[in-house]
TrEMBL record:
It comes from the Bacteria. This is Pyridine nucleotide-disulfide oxidoreductase. Residues 1-315 form the FAD/NAD(P)-binding domain. Belongs to the NADH dehydrogenase family. PANTHER family: NADH DEHYDROGENASE (PTHR43706), NADH DEHYDROGENASE-LIKE PROTEIN RV1812C (PTHR43706:SF45). Keywords: FAD, Flavoprotein, NAD, Oxidoreductase. The keyword Oxidoreductase applies. GO terms for molecular function: NADH dehydrogenase activity. It comes from Tardiphaga robiniae.
Amino acid sequence: MRIVIIGAGFAGMYAALSAARLRDIKGVSPEQLEIALVAPEPTLVIRPRLYEPKPETLTAPLLDVLKAIDVVYVQGSAETIDITSRIVQVATANNKRQPLSYDRLVVATGSRLFRPNIPGLAEHGFSVDNLDDAIALDKHLHGLANRPASSGRDTIVVAGGGFTGIEAATEIPTRLRAILGKDVKPRVIIVERNSAIAPDMGEGPRPIIEEALRKLGVETRLGAGVASLDASGITLSDGERIETETVIWAAGIRAAPLTTQIPAERDNFGRLLVDRDLRVPSVPGVFATGDAARAASDDVGNYALMSCQHATRMGAFAGNNAAAELLRMATRPYHQKAYVTCLDLGEAGALFTRGWDRKVEMVGDVAKKTKKEINTVWIYPPKPERAAALASADPEHVTEV
C-alpha cells in the first residue's frame, strides 16, 4: 500500500508526519505501507517570512526529518493525476517522467499569488509569494543603491492592503534605510481597491493598523486599483500616476493549478471542497488539505483560511485520515476552533488578535515578541528525532495557533 503526498509546504509536511505516526502506532512496517512525499526540493519554505530581508535564509531542511520517520522523498514536480488508474506522473530531473501509483493521495499543493492580466505587471511587478520571487525583490532593492537618487528610486508601491501587503509595506522602510543609508526617507504607498485598509480585519484592529502606518509614514490609496505598470511608475484606476521603480504585488492568492486535475467542485479561490475528514467526496482515495482545500473548521460556519496556521493542523488530519483508511482505523474529523492573527507592523511593533471576531489581545512590542516566536520557532519543522517528530503530529494536539 502507498500514500502519496504532493507538496512539502506546511500541510504536506504535517500530512507526512501524521501518516507516519499512525503507521507507527499500528505497528505497520514502511514496507507494508509506504508514505511518499513529492516535491521539487526537500525543504520547507518559511513562506510567512518572505517579506523579511535575506529571504534565501528562510528555508528549513526536511530530508533528515523524513528519513527519521521512514517517509520516502521523491524529488520532482507532480504533473498529472490519473484518478482512474490512481497514478501520479512526476517530472524528475533531466525531463524524465516517473509514474507513482497510490492507494491514497493527499493533495497539499498550496497556493500561488493571483496575477491578473494588468499591462506591465509581469514585466515590472515584484512579489514575496515564493522564495524565488522574494530573492528577486531583495536583489532589486539592493540594486537601488547603484541608481541615482530620485523620487522614483525611493518610492515603493505595494498593491494590496491585506496581511501580506501590510507586512511587506511596514518592513520596507527599515530594509531600504539599511540599503540606501539611514538619511534616506523612503516613500511607501499601499494601494487597496477596498474603501479601508486591511479589509478582512474588521473595525476592532483597524485603528491600530492605521496608527502604525501613520507612525511609519506609509501612505494609502484606497478605493483604487492598479491600471498599468511600466519601468518608471504605476498608473492607478482613478488616473493617478506614481513615479516608482519598485511595485510589490500582494493582491490575493489562488490554489495551485494542479487542483484543477481533480474532477471535483471548487470554490472561487480554486480550493477543492472537502468533507470533515478532508476527503474530496466525489473522488475516491483523494484527500485535499492546506491551501488546496476548502474545509469547515467548526460547526458554526467558519472555514479554514489560506494560512500556515490552518495548513499545519489540516495537514495533520489529512495524513492521519489517509493512513487510517488503509489501516482500517477510525478517521478523525478536522476541527480548528481557535483562530488568531499576528500581524507584523515593522518598527511599529505588531498586532495580535484572537477569535474570528478578531479581539485585540496584544499590540506593540509585546505582540512583536510573540510574532518573532511564531516566525522563528513555532512554524519550523520538528527536529529529526523519530519519537519527537512523530509525537508532534498528533492531529488533536497540533497547535491551533
